[in-house]
Design goal:
This protein is an alpha+beta fold and about 375 residues long. Helix content is about 45%, strand content about 15%. The strands form 3 sheets. The protein has a 5-stranded mixed sheet, with helices on both faces. The protein has a 3-stranded antiparallel sheet with strand order 10-6-11, covered by helices on one side.
C-alpha cells in the first residue's frame, strides 16, 4: 500500500523534510526558534507553538508572514482573533486554541473520513459554522512544525487528506456541471471560466489524495507544477489522470478564440472528473440533480419568479408551478449538455441566484482505505 504522505515519504521523512524547509526559512530571516518561542511566551502565554502555512510547504518567499498557532491546556471560549506582532521588522501572527478543542476536531476528522463521500462533504461544509479551530486552522495544525522540529499532529494527515480530497472533488463536480450547463445555454466565455475552476479543484483534490494538503487556493497551481515535476504518484492510474488534466489545461484558453467559440468543450472535463473520482476511490459514477429553495410563481406575462432562501430570479418562458430540469430525476453528467438552451439558461440563472442548488449523488463508492 502506498504511503499516505506526500512524495511517498514516511511520516519521519516528511517531518524531516518540512523541518528542513522551516529551518532554511527562519535562517533566511535571521530568526532563531528559541527566540521566537520566548517572544510568543511573553506576548501570548505558554503553549505548544506551531509554525504553519507556506514555510512548512517550502513555498515561502521574502515577503511571507510568519503564521503561528498556539495550543494551550486551558479552555478558550468564543471565536478567535489572531494576535499581530511586529518585532524587528518581522510581521508575526498567532492564534490560540485549547487542547480539548483540537482533540475534538481531530476526532471529527477521523469520523468524516470514514463516512460516505456525500456525508464527508456535508460535514466539511458545515465545519466552520460549528467548530473551532476552523477548517483552515485545523489543516494548518495537522501540517504544523513545532519549534523543536517535530510535527506533533501529523498522524492526522491521512484523515485530513481524505476529507479535503473529497471536498475538492465535490466542488469539481459542481463546476463541471456548470460548465456543461453554460455550454448548453450558449455561453461561449462563461463555460471556459467554469472549466478553469474544474481544473483547479481537480488539482487540489489530487494533491490532497497524495497527502499534499494546503487550503490556500493561490498555491494550487504552484504545488501542482511541483508535483508534476517531481512525480511520486501513488500509482499509474493517478499518473494517467494527471496527464489528462495537463492536456486539458494546456488547451482550455484556446476556446476563448472566435474560431473555437462554438466547439464542444464540456464533455472531456466531465470525463476527467469521473476518471479522477474513480482513480481516488471516491466513486464509480456520479449523478446531478437540482433542488429548489423556493417555488416558481407568476410574475409577468411570459415569465415567472423563483424566490428562494438565498435570493430570487426571473425565469423567462417558465410557467408558475412548473419544475426546473432535474428536480425530479437526477441525471448523469454527460446528460447535462443535452438540455435545450432556454432550459439550461433558466437553470443557470436559478443556481447563480441561490434560488436552486445542485444535489450531487455518488454511486458504487469504493472503500479506498
Amino acid at each position: 500500500m502506498p504511503s499516505p504522505f506526500p512524495h511517498s515519504l514516511s511520516a519521519d521523512a516528511l517531518t524531516a523534510r518540512r523541518h528542513g524547509e522551516v529551518t532554511a526559512f527562519l535562517e533566511g530571516r535571521g530568526l532563531d526558534p528559541l527566540w521566537l518561542s520566548e517572544l510568543m511566551r511573553e506576548r501570548v502565554g505558554d503553549g505548544l507553538l506551531l509554525l504553519t502555512s507556506s514555510p512548512v510547504h517550502g513555498l515561502a518567499n521574502a515577503t511571507s508572514d510568519l503564521d503561528f498557532i498556539r495550543i494551550q491546556k486551558e479552555a478558550i471560549d468564543g471565536p478567535r482573533i489572531s494576535t499581530k506582532i511586529f518585532e524587528g521588522g518581522h510581521h508575526l501572527e498567532v492564534v490560540s486554541f485549547s487542547e480539548t478543542e483540537l482533540a475534538s476536531n481531530l476526532a471529527e476528522l477521523e469520523r468524516l473520513a470514514g463516512l460516505s463521500a456525500d456525508g464527508t462533504v456535508a460535514g466539511f461544509r458545515a465545519w466552520d459554522k460549528q467548530r473551532e479551530p476552523r477548517r483552515k486552522q485545523t489543516e494548518r495544525i495537522v501540517n504544523g512544525i513545532a519549534m523543536d522540529g517535530t510535527a506533533p499532529y501529523l498522524d492526522a494527515l491521512p484523515a485530513l487528506a481524505r476529507v479535503w480530497c473529497r471536498a475538492s472533488l465535490h466542488t469539481a463536480v459542481e463546476q463541471v456541471a456548470h460548465t456543461a450547463l453554460a455550454e448548453a445555454a450558449g455561453e461561449t466565455r462563461g463555460r471556459v471560466g467554469y472549466a478553469y475552476n474544474v481544473l483547479l479543484h481537480l488539482m487540489d483534490g489530487l494533491l490532497s489524495h497524495q497527502g499534499d494538503v494546503y487550503t490556500t487556493r493561490k498555491w494550487y497551481v504552484l504545488r501542482w507544477t511541483r508535483l508534476m515535476a517531481e512525480g511520486g504518484w501513488h500509482d499509474e492510474t493517478l499518473r494517467a489522470v494527471a496527464r489528462g488534466l495537463e492536456r486539458l489545461r494546456g488547451d482550455v484558453h484556446t476556446f476563448l478564440r472566435p474560431g473555437r467559440a462554438r466547439e464542444p468543450l464540456a464533455a472531456p472535463y466531465a470525463e476527467l472528473v469521473l476518471e479522477t473520482l474513480r482513480a481516488t476511490g471516491t466513486a464509480r459514477a456520479v449523478t446531478v440533480g437540482v433542488e429548489l429553495t423556493g417555488q416558481v410563481k407568476d410574475f409577468l406575462p411570459g415569465a415567472s419568479l423563483l424566490m428562494g432562501a438565498d435570493g430570487g430570479v426571473v425565469l423567462p418562458g417558465v410557467r408558475a408551478g412548473s419544475e426546473l430540469p432535474f428536480t425530479s430525476s437526477p441525471v448523469d453528467l454527460d446528460e447535462l449538455t443535452a438540455l435545450d438552451a432556454p432550459a439550461a439558461a433558466s437553470l443557470l440563472r436559478a443556481l447563480r441566484a441561490g434560488a436552486a442548488r445542485l444535489r450531487i449523488g455518488y454511486r458504487d463508492e469504493e472503500a479506498a482505505r
